[in-house]
Write a structure and sequence with these properties.
5-stranded mixed sheet; elongated; Alpha-Beta Plaits; 25 helices; alpha+beta; 11-stranded mixed sheet; single chain; 3 domains
Length: 667
């Protein structure tokens, strides 16, 4: 993440931070390693422009952490008040409050650290949690005034920062112990595990004690009194006097105007207060003859202002990231609704409803972000790719290079096709690729066009002309984060049952492969001749039955009598068909035939054209490592005359395909 991109995401306006990349670089030179990258958060209508930010789950565990924090702060407050009154306090209640809070905090920190993999989850956690801390500590003086007016007036500000110091010491000790313990588990150095953003927050008290600071610093009265030990009203008055004097000097002093124009590259006719927020500028003004330190800022106060100015800028930068937090509640009907949004991000006129595909961060769960996702997947695979490549290799390097170039052009064309159908390339698979989508219909249309592209490519000279297999499914996948450091960026790989299922649907591997058993026995030391002789009865009975009639087609798919899937066309799972049916509710269905095979056809719109797509249930396939799986053949109906279609009424897609399958079985 570069400073320019960050500033474009942060919701302004800023009172002290200049929204310029150089300003951000000076404040945080190691920006990429310190701050997390905001991510798109899609609204319910996923076509709308997404928000940028961090979706945070307001789960039961996260709310318990917030409640435990509040109980602990109130317990610390009670201890401080008891000490000022010279009274006893409930030691057990205070200890229990801390133990409950630190147990939940440690759990959240451990989950964030172990699950991070370069995604800076600990930094996101501290941005979120520090805001809860700041909102509680900010109210300490007011709560003390309600407890005891005199005590609150005299000691409220000091108590606020005593509680803060005790809180920070305990939290840092807990964090260091946790990092030391987890360094061995994660095989990372301790300094890499400790969140840098927490170190910056430790050095800037404002981030843990304030949630808004206006230009006149009126919110910082308790900070000036309780932390710095100075008169805040006097400082604010002097700053107002400084602003008026500075405005007059800009009008009267041409030398000062020249400095502002040429050295600071600013417009002296603009807001003169912005110039006072530039580090080093007020000390320069203090060297002018007309500067009166008795009325304006004396040297000691000048140093305070310069130090405070950096803290104010850093506060606005990090608090700007905190304003990108989007706390989310999941309602009973599954809707994801944004809650607790700051005023600048509120959505008047209704709730902020997010896409159901949103994966919020829940630091009380081991994975933080649930790695399980439901996706539509598609794999295409070139048939006999290796054998064709071997033949080309024997023909010479030039032929092989030409083949790879043709394949490269073909894959680029497929990628453009996928983008146009909102399918995402997840990984290349040597002679094919895996795409994911959140829409069944679009992925189906993409696969039909992909098959047509292949036919055109072979006609134009693509040497890999022995066919192409395509498989479609809908099901569970898991996402593995591949990075380990922030500078590597976020990258995920799919794995899990969904990908295994697609792989089996393209290769057609059965539960028991005779050749694999033979190879295993030979590797175990059995004589090769004996192994072949033992399995010869199976070979003579043609265990892996081939249907030569089916394989006369350019693209075909069938299940033989042993339950083995032969796919050299396009197939889909029953789960995919069910989801497609939901998307296409109300779409008319037609009965049609291609040769002696009956299909249920849909007519779909694609880029202004009408595509007819046929479906036929093949049966239950035995696929290696999987339970029996219902498999459906999908065909491009371009060669079928629509005039021969007969409309099917009163039945939905899956039932219509099932009925055609039953009729075909009886015939």
């Amino acid at each position: 993440m570069n400073p320019t991109s960050l500033l474009q995401m942060l919701p302004g306006p800023f009172n002290f931070l200049r929204p310029e990349p150089d300003e951000v670089r000076r404040l945080i030179p190691d920006l990429q390693r310190l701050l997390p990258q905001p991510r798109p958060i899609f609204l319910e209508d996923e076509n709308a422009t997404p928000l940028q930010g961090f979706p945070i789950s307001l789960s039961r565990g996260m709310l318990e952490l917030r409640a435990a924090l509040r109980e602990y702060v109130l317990a610390e407050e009670a201890v401080q008040v008891a000490g000022l009154r010279r009274e006893g306090h409930d030691v057990r209640a205070h200890t229990l409050a801390w133990e409950r809070y630190v147990a939940l905090l440690s759990r959240a920190l451990e989950n964030a650290t172990i699950s991070s993999y370069g995604r800076q989850y600990p930094a996101v956690f501290w941005l979120f949690h520090s805001l809860d801390v700041a909102r509680l500590l900010k109210e300490v003086p007011k709560r003390m005034l309600r407890r005891d007016t005199e005590l609150g007036r005299r000691h409220g500000d000091a108590v606020k920062y005593r509680i803060f110091d005790r809180f920070l010491d305990r939290v840092l000790a807990t964090s260091y112990d946790l990092v030391q313990r987890l360094a061995g588990t994660t095989e990372e150095a301790e300094e890499e595990l400790f969140p840098r953003v927490l170190s910056r927050m430790r050095d800037n008290v404002l981030l843990f004690t304030e949630d808004y600071i206006s230009r006149d610093l009126s919110e910082l009265g308790s900070y000036f009194n309780g932390s710095l030990g100075i008169d805040g009203r006097d400082l604010r008055k002097r700053l107002d006097d400084l602003a008026r004097w500075h405005f007059e000097q800009l009008a009267a002093d041409p030398g000062l105007r020249a400095v502002v124009t040429h050295l600071l590259r600013a417009d002296p006719r603009g807001d003169s207060r912005d110039l006072l927020c530039r580090p080093g500028y007020v000390p320069y003004l203090a060297t002018l003859k007309s500067y009166d330190p008795a009325r304006l800022l004396p040297p000691a106060v000048l140093q305070v202002w310069e130090g405070l100015l950096l803290k104010l800028k850093e506060f606005e930068l990090l608090h700007g990231l905190r304003r990108l937090l989007v706390p989310i509640e999941v309602e009973a009907d599954g809707r994801m609704v944004g809650r607790e949004l700051p005023p600048g991000r509120a959505f008047p006129g209704g709730d902020l409803v997010l896409s159901t595909a949103t994966r919020p961060l829940d630091f009380m769960e081991p994975w933080v972000v649930d790695p399980r996702v439901e996706r539509y997947g598609m794999i295409y695979d070139i048939s006999d790719f290796s054998q064709t490549l071997s033949m080309l290799h024997r023909a010479g390097n030039e032929r092989q290079d030409d083949a790879f170039l043709a394949m490269f052009r073909f894959q680029r064309r497929i990628n453009r096709l996928a983008v146009s159908h909102r399918a995402k390339l997840e990984k290349y698979l040597g002679d094919g690729a895996f795409y994911s989508s959140r829409e069944a219909t679009n992925l189906l249309l993409c696969s039909i066009h992909l098959q047509r592209y292949y036919v055109e490519a072979v006609r134009d000279g693509l040497p890999f002309d022995r066919g192409m297999r395509i498989a479609l499914n809908y099901g569970p996948y898991r996402l593995i984060p591949m990075g380990s450091r922030p500078e590597e960026g976020e990258r995920y790989e799919f794995f899990g049952p969904g990908l295994v299922e697609l792989s089996r649907l393209t290769t057609g591997k059965a539960t028991q492969e005779v050749d694999e058993v033979k190879t295993m026995l030979i590797n175990q030391g059995y004589p090769e001749a004996t192994v072949h002789r033992f399995f010869s009865p199976l070979s003579s009975k043609n265990v892996d039955v081939v249907d030569k009639t089916e394989e006369l087609r350019q693209f075909y798919a069938y299940i033989n009598r042993n339950g083995t899937l032969h796919n050299n066309g396009m197939v889909a799972t029953g789960a995919f068909i069910a989801q497609l049916e939901r998307e296409l509710t109300g779409c008319p269905l037609f009965h049609g035939r291609e040769g002696d095979r009956a299909y249920v056809f849909l007519v779909l719109e694609s880029a202004g054209d009408k595509l007819s797509v046929g479906f036929r249930k093949l049966g239950m396939a035995h696929l290696k490592g999987l339970e029996k799986l219902a498999v459906y053949e999908i065909v491009d109906g371009a060669g079928v005359d629509p005039a021969a279609f007969t409309q099917i009424r009163g039945v939905r897609l899956a039932a219509a395909v099932e009925r055609e399958s039953a009729v075909g079985a009886r015939v």
